[in-house]
Amino acid sequence: MSDQIRGENGGDEAPETMTPVEAAASMRRRRENLPTPQKNTENPESTTVEDTDDGAKGADLEDAGVLAKLRSHPIAVALAAVVVFAGAIGGILWYLDSRHYTNTDDAFIDGRPVSINLEVTGNIVKVPVTDNQIVRVGDLLVQIDDRDYRAAVDLAQAQMDQAQASVENFSAQVYAQESQIAQTETQVVQAQATLDFSKQQNTRYQDLVEKGAGTVQRAEQATSEFQANTAALAATQAVKIVADRQINVLKAQRKNAQAQFSQAQAQKATADVNLTRTTLYATADGRVTRLTAAVGQLATQAQGVMILVPLDVWVTANFKETQLADIRVGQPVDIAIDSFGRSFP
C-alpha cells in the first residue's frame, strides 16, 4: 500500500511511495509535532532527524511523549494520584499514632514451676497422676511404702513412754526423799531441844553436888543423859546430811530421765514427719510435667519425680530502657502469641 503525505516545511512535495510502517510513523510524527526524518542521500536506506538546540529538543520531545501518554489515560492517572495521596496521609497518620505505642518481640510466657522431690527413701506404691494432667491443691501425687516409717513412729512412741515413766518414778522418789528430809529436820530440832534440856540438867545437878545439896548418883545420871543426847543429835544431823545428798542424786537422775524424754519426743516428731513425707500432695493448682515416678520404683531422698507447672502464668516482656519513659501501670497491652497466630488484649 502507499500513501501521500505533506512535507514538514509547509510546501507541497511530490508524492512518494511509502510502506504501511512508514505511513503510520509519519502520521504519529504529525500528531505529536515531531520533526520529519530526512533521507540520507549518501545512504538511501537510512534516515536522520534534525537535531535542534544542541540535543535539548530531543529531551523535550520525550517529555512531551510521556505527557501525551498520561493525557491518554486520565482515569489511571487520577487513581494513581489518589493512591499516592492516600498513602502519604496514611503514613503521616501512622507516624503520629505510632509515637504513642511501643513493642518488643523479646517476650515469653512465664511462671514458677515447682519441682516435686522425694524427702524420704522407699518403694513407690502409687502414682495416681500422669503427664499433662491438671491437679488441684491437696491432690495425691506419689505414695511411698510407709510400713517402716510407721514402725519408727511406734518405736519412738514407746521410748517416749518409757522416758516419761522414768521421769515420773524419779519425781516420786524425790518427793519421798523431800519428806524424809523434812522428817530428819524435825528429828534434828527435837534432838537439839533434848540436848539443850539435858545440858541444863547436867549443869544444875553438878552445881548441887558441889554445894552438897544433891547426890553424886543423880549428877552422874544427868551427865550421862547429856552425853547420850549429844550423840543422838549428831546421829540425827548425819541422817539429814545423807538425806540431802540422796535427794541431789535423785534430782540428777530425774533430770537425766527428762532429757531422755525430750530426746524421745524429738525422735517421735521426726518419725511423724518422715511418715507424712511418704505421701506427696500438690501444693498448688497446676499441670503435671516431666513425670518420672513409677509404681515399684525404689526412690531415694531428694530424687525429683515430676515438675508441677502452676496455672497462674504471666508474660515477661523485656523492653529497652529507652522504651520505658512513657510506660505506666494500667496501660492496655496487646499480646501476640506465635503458636496461636493471634493477639489477645
Strand content: 5-15%
Which word captures the global form?
A: rod-shaped
Number of E strands: 14
> Tell me about the biggest sheet?
4 strands, antiparallel
Q: Helix/strand-derived class?
A: alpha+beta
Mean pLDDT: 79
Radius of gyration: 61 Å
Tell me the quaternary state: single chain
In whole angstroms, the N-to-C terminal distance is 75 Å
What is the CATH topology of the domain at 147-275?
Helix Hairpins
Q: What is the element string, with H for helices and E for strands? A: HEEHHEEEEEHHEEEEEEE
Give the CATH superfamily of the domain at 147-275.
Answer: Helix Hairpins
As laid out across the biggest beta sheet, the strand order is: 4-11-9-6
Helical run tally: 5
**What's the CATH class of the domain at 147-275, please?**
Mainly Alpha
Overall CATH architecture of the domain at 147-275: Orthogonal Bundle
> Any low-confidence stretches, pLDDT <50, length ≥5?
1-15, 41-55
Description:
This protein is α+β, with helices and mostly antiparallel strands and 345 residues long. Among the domains are: 50 residues, no CATH class; 45 residues; 129 residues, Helix Hairpins (Orthogonal Bundle), CATH 1.10.287.620. It contains five helices and 14 strands. The strands form five sheets. A four-stranded antiparallel beta sheet has the order 4-11-9-6, with no helix packed on it. A four-stranded antiparallel beta sheet has the order 8-7-5-10, with no helix packed on it. It has a two-stranded antiparallel sheet with strand order 1-2. Strand 13 and strand 14 form a beta hairpin. The longest helix has 65 residues.
